């Protein structure tokens, strides 16, 4: 039995090489409270755009690190023993195997860089 999560997560690459990626336009066009789109692939990693409001579930990635960079808004990353708050133009890396969740008290746009095999909802 699968559980439907209240998140839209698109793992297919939207933009190939040599294409302009207008993050602001994508952000403005998105009407959902929790949206994740894989923008492009760079070597063995992908760049994802997350537009979020509310909180994601606790999860971890067993084999890969995850980098978060806030474009607009405010992102809170809860770890088991600390909480980090990111403002625009700030980033933070969660190492592989670390249990975490993200929260956004207001609509927030962020870029995530992670291995292309990362399952966004956790391992």
Report what the structure shows.
β2 and β3 form a beta hairpin. Helix content is 6%, strand content 48%. Strands 1, 2, 3, 4, 5, 6, 7 and 8 form an 8-stranded mixed sheet that branches. It is globular. The protein is mainly beta and 123 residues long. It has a single domain (8-115), classed as Jelly Rolls. The chain is built from 1 helix and 8 strands; from the N terminus they run βαβββββββ. The chain has one helix spanning 23-29; strands at residues 8-10, 34-42, 45-55, 66-72, 75-79, 83-86, 91-94, 100-115.
CATH domain topology: Jelly Rolls
**Assigned CATH superfamily:** Jelly Rolls
- Count of discrete domains: 1
Average of per-residue pLDDT values: 92
Query: What's the number of helices?
Result: 1
Strand content: over 45%
Could you tell me the radius of gyration in angstroms?
A: 14 Å
Q: Terminal Cα separation, in Å?
A: 17 Å
Approximate helicity band: under 10%
**Low-pLDDT stretches:** none
Jot down its keywords:
single chain, 123 residues, mainly beta, Jelly Rolls, eight-stranded mixed sheet, 8 strands, 6% helix, globular
Q: Quick recap of the structure?
A:
By secondary structure, the chain is mainly beta. It has one helix spanning 23-29, and strands spanning 8-10, 34-42, 45-55, 66-72, 75-79, 83-86, 91-94, 100-115.
